[in-house]
Design brief:
The chain has 612 residues and is of the alpha/beta class. 35% of the residues lie in helices and 24% in strands. An 8-stranded antiparallel beta sheet has the order 3-2-4-1-10-9-11-15, with helices on one face. Helix 3 packs across helix 4, helix 7 packs antiparallel against helix 14 and helix 15 crosses helix 19. The structure holds 6-O-phosphono-alpha-D-glucopyranose. The site of 6-O-phosphono-alpha-D-glucopyranose (G6P) has 15 residues, from helix 9.
Length: 612
Amino acid sequence: MCGIVGYIGTREAFPIIINGLKRLEYRGYDSAGVAISNNGQMGIYKIKGKVSQLEDAVKKTDIMGTIGIGHTRWATHGAPNDINAHPHKSMNGKFVVVHNGIIENYSVLKKRLTARHYTFVSQTDTEVLANLIEYIYLFAKISAEDAVRFALSKVQGAYGIAVICTDEPDKIIAARKSSPLVLGIGVDEYFVASDATPFVEYTNQVVYLDNDTLAVISRNGLSIKTIKNVPVTPEITEINFDFDEIEKGGFPDFMLKEIYEQPHSITDTLRGRVYMQENEINIGGLLDVMPRLMNARRMIIVGCGTSWHAGLLGEYLFEEYARIPVEVEYASEFRYRNPIINSEDVVIAISQSGETADTLAAIQLAKKCGACVLGICNVVGSSIARETHAGVYTHAGPEIGVASTKAFTAQVSVLAMIALMVGRAKYNIKPVQYHQLLNELTDVPKKVEEVLTTADKIKHVAELYKDSPNFIYLGRGCYYPIALEGALKLKEISYIHAEGYPAAEMKHGPIALIDDKMPVVVIAAKDKSYEKIVNNIQEVKARKGIVIAVVTKGDTIISQMADYVLEVPEFETAIGAMITVIPLQLLSYYIAVMRGCNVDQPRNLAKSVTVE
Ligand code: G6P
């Protein structure tokens, strides 16, 4: 949460920072600000609202300078307003700071600084940090770099920061603990940002800053040290980035583009891993840990939000094919219990961003207990990807819409591959069946494509029910996670209250909500519990509920009972079941657009949740 960009070089910094911040708005978008240093003068421009509003507000101002830092905010301490927007200046104006994370002991530090006559203008923890750095700098008469380092040693919590000192205006000091920071190395210019997207058009040479390290970038170079002042040799990575991936490419929103990208993103996720002719799955990143996977006593899947839903589908797949007992945990709950984990357990952390604070903490706990920890991440080089023993990238391409869509189907594809690979290695699956399952997996993109052609029908249903205040989503077995995901998509982008429930559980409560105004979305594609779901639909109809059913193409039974059916192509197993999420993604998308909501940046949400 919160995005940071910093630039130092030979070009004008302001436009680079503004454009960079726009690409980071998935991390938060309630206020934005930029500080530009020019010949010893520091100009700070900040505003409540989006980056484009900041851009408009300063349109008539001549902002010059080749060094600067910027921030797009997701509020933690202090309401979103102009004053709480970053950058924050220290009381005597010596330091300017942008920060992503939370300083947990800020109130103690604030009290101490207040006792030393420091005053504060904002409610933020970041201003406390800016003042702490300045206090140490002035009191100890040390360099800006040392003052930042010393201040950070007094801080508890998470931070990714970029700092400029007005006495040493030709450098940016950046540091991180638990919040991501990436450095970009160009020719006579350097960048720092929460991810690499703000500077991909300028350089493909990046350094992922490690936890507890501090970097100083100037026009002449880069130096990295640990927070304890031990020099670190920068490890430069070359990134391959397709610029089109972060543009809307003719779609009105990123979310719609990302929904439509799924045939490709799933194909990319399977590419080079599923070998039909050889009847084999080969995931390079897992070779070393295969014995641990095969002998796992138990699997624990951790994640948050949509990634947790993918984990629930993973449970189904692992139990079915790998025959390993699985528990699926919210990372935020898991990390604060005292879970019983040992070296025979395998923990799989699922995270699109690879930066979710709770998931990261869950991994650290599992590692401490001796478990083998795998990551399924989309963002290459992310903290979770680097923190796990082994892992698999989803290769879905950058997901910018805050509501996750293509990451979900890519995560489920990876889980399916691992479950099948382990199942086969344990001889649970015979070669012929394995071939059929691989076929089903590689057919998913084609089937998703087919569902996407039914968008007009889905739009029609959206038009009819866009004003309903409530929705219920029901599914059994592997469709239960799909029901949860459908409900989550609807509430997060359209602000309609929606509940996902296992269909049979409906009788134990939600059925009381059903009347002739309640749309009930039932995932009812053919599988072994088909008859049961038909009964559940009858139960809804008996209470006059409005049934919108996702059914297998050509289904005649449910078509007669349901008010509307959304068809998906036929599939055989839980692997193919992931395609039933597509109509639900589109339904939420159209409803949200028809209600005038900003689907890419829903209120109060952010994509990379780096605070717990
Ligand atoms: C936020 C996003 C969700 C996402 C969840 C977990 O809530 O809005 O779309 O599913 O975080 O994020 P992760 O990056 O760990 O998958």
